[in-house]
Design a protein that fits this description.
Elements lengths: L7 H19 L19 H9 L7 H22 L1 H22 L8 H11 L11 H17 L8 H19 L2
Helix pairs in contact: 1-3, 2-4, 3-4, 3-5, 4-7, 5-6, 5-7, 6-7
Length: 182
């Protein structure tokens, strides 16, 4: 048997997130601010602007990282096999950018982590066996369960950006519907 690098974008993303987390620990938390999008962006600072996308690679703690990587490594290869590496990279980048911009526009908190990407993958995976013009029951159920749970939890005081989860899920839904209509 031979080991196969089966999902280069997903595996690369997972390795980047892990490397950033480990290096940040060695630097005693001084790297993570680069991988966070803040409510006020300094448009003259390239690191501040890049946070609109790079925030998905930063994670607050090991539980946060491992929770996201579990879903990314479980669902990502299925998505990458169906849509291809280039489209998956595009979907990750667009989801990160949309999530970052909406966070800056409407919320007064910082944002980091790949949870939006996880929710994009969760909703997108429900479209893997869809023919044109169909709405899968699995999509409806997944949307109700995952997005419904996030809406309910959004009224709680916690350190979780439910908005990023919902936005990621919306992006995954849009990607799924666009791809299934072709």
């Amino acid at each position: 048997m031979k080991i196969k690098w089966n999902a280069p974008v997903i595996l690369g993303f997972a390795l980047i997130c892990t490397a950033i987390y480990v290096v940040d620990k060695f630097l005693m938390g001084n790297l993570m601010p680069i991988f966070t999008v803040y409510p006020q962006i300094d448009w003259t600072n390239p690191l501040s602007v890049s946070g609109l996308i790079t925030h998905v690679a930063g994670h607050a703690n090991l539980e946060h990282l491992l929770g996201n990587l579990t879903f990314i490594l479980l669902l990502g290869p299925i998505i990458e096999e169906k849509y291809g590496s280039q489209k998956v990279l595009y979907m990750i980048m667009i989801t990160a950018l949309v999530t970052g911009i909406i966070n800056v526009m409407f919320f007064d908190t910082g944002l980091l982590g790949a949870s939006g990407i996880v929710f994009m993958l969760i909703l997108l995976v429900s479209f893997t066996n869809v023919s044109s013009g169909e709405i899968p029951v699995t999509f409806i159920l997944v949307a109700l369960l995952f997005v419904g749970k996030e809406l309910l939890q959004s009224v709680e005081v916690n350190q979780i950006a439910e908005s990023a989860h919902i936005i990621g899920g919306a992006c995954g839904s849009i990607f799924g519907f666009r791809s299934s209509s072709r």
